[in-house]
Design brief:
The chain is an all-alpha fold and about 325 residues long. It is about 70% helix and about 0% strand. It has one domain.
């Protein structure tokens, strides 16, 4: 009985440590974004709270915690609150399938490729229910936009996952990383990575695909009626998904924790962190550079351009893989 309680306490402590790690990653991501955007726009950015503005994300979090929690009139309060919790919970559950280094840890889910696709599909429910329960036509339209956008680009992401799985003959993300020991998948699958980064921006509602938050049309999208802690949960979920998308890209295309050219100057977690930060910088760079798409342009890009392209690359990869396997069997 005592050993069972110790094991349970060990798992709980690991979950708490992982939660703190995710929250700190979100805080540093927001600080990185504000600093990079300020540098690109030739202004200062956060530089008052803490050294070089390092404590600004924590000050923002404290401000949201102290704000008044307002419920819209005639809204469904239960769904109004639970949708935020559900969205944040889905953003955290994705991390259970992401290996951050080659060693085992208690909350890691093996064969997490299918698990990631399932959780990404579930996250759309929290957004649509948040817009519906607000009893606001602007929030409801923002929820519909975001849900349609996420569903549209999830199809392309699924085809990209299928292509990677076909190349590796495995759905375990650790085996996918190990198979990139000779060459990272970014080299032979560069067009697939470009499609993935575009779909990742659309999946996380990031610029230039932040149509649910189009200020001139829908004020702030599905979360326009939220304040205080519920708004903070949506904010945390969005940036948690951004960091998770960066981690998935690093695992699928950049060799995860594998060093560059076999140079082992850094440890495995540090190599992983460097790749994630570079991918986050690319996302922020795109936000500072490109203007927002119209909604019809967004849907056209997803259904008429990226979906056929992802299918074409999937067929090419499957064709090449089957022929290579066929000739290898004949040769040996």
């Amino acid at each position: 009985m005592f050993s069972y309680l110790l094991g349970y306490l060990y798992v709980v402590c690991n979950c708490l440590v992982f939660l703190i790690f995710v929250l700190l990653s979100v805080a540093l991501t927001t600080l990185l974004e504000r600093k990079v955007l300020a540098s690109m726009q030739r202004r200062r950015g956060p530089n008052v709270v803490g050294m070089f503005g390092f404590l600004q994300p924590f000050a923002d979090a404290l401000k949201l915690l102290l704000k008044e929690n307002i419920f819209p009139r005639d809204s469904d309060k239960n769904i109004f609150v639970l949708s935020t919790v559900f969205t944040f919970f889905c953003s955290l559950k994705v991390w259970a399938a992401l290996p951050l280094w080659e060693f085992d840890y208690p909350i890691y889910i093996v064969n997490g490729t299918l698990y990631i696709l399932i959780i990404l599909s579930f996250s759309a429910y929290g957004i649509i229910f948040a817009g519906w329960s607000s009893n606001s036509k602007y929030a409801f339209l923002g929820g519909l936009r975001s849900t349609a956008q996420m569903i549209s680009y999830e199809v392309c992401v699924s085809f990209i996952f299928i292509a990677i799985v076909m190349c590796c003959q495995s759905i375990d993300l650790r085996e996918i990383v190990d198979l990139q020991n000779g060459i990272w998948f970014i080299v032979p699958l560069l067009p697939v990575w470009i499609i993935f980064i575009i779909c990742g921006l659309a999946e996380t509602n990031r610029a230039p695909f932040d149509l649910p938050a189009a200020e001139a049309e829908l004020v702030a999208g599905y979360n326009v009626e939220y304040s205080a802690i519920p708004f903070a949960l949506f904010f945390l979920a969005e940036y948690t998904n951004i960091v998770a998308t960066s981690t998935i890209s690093s695992i699928l295309f950049f060799g995860g924790w594998l060093p560059l050219f076999g140079i082992k100057l850094l440890s495995s977690p540090l190599w992983m962190s460097v790749k994630i930060v570079i991918y986050l910088f690319i996302i922020i760079w795109i936000r500072a550079t490109l203007p927002r798409y119209r909604y019809d342009q967004l849907m056209k890009l997803g259904w008429k351009i990226l979906l056929p392209l992802s299918l074409v690359f999937l067929f090419i990869i499957s064709f090449l893989f089957l022929h290579i396997e066929k000739y290898a069997s004949i040769y040996y």
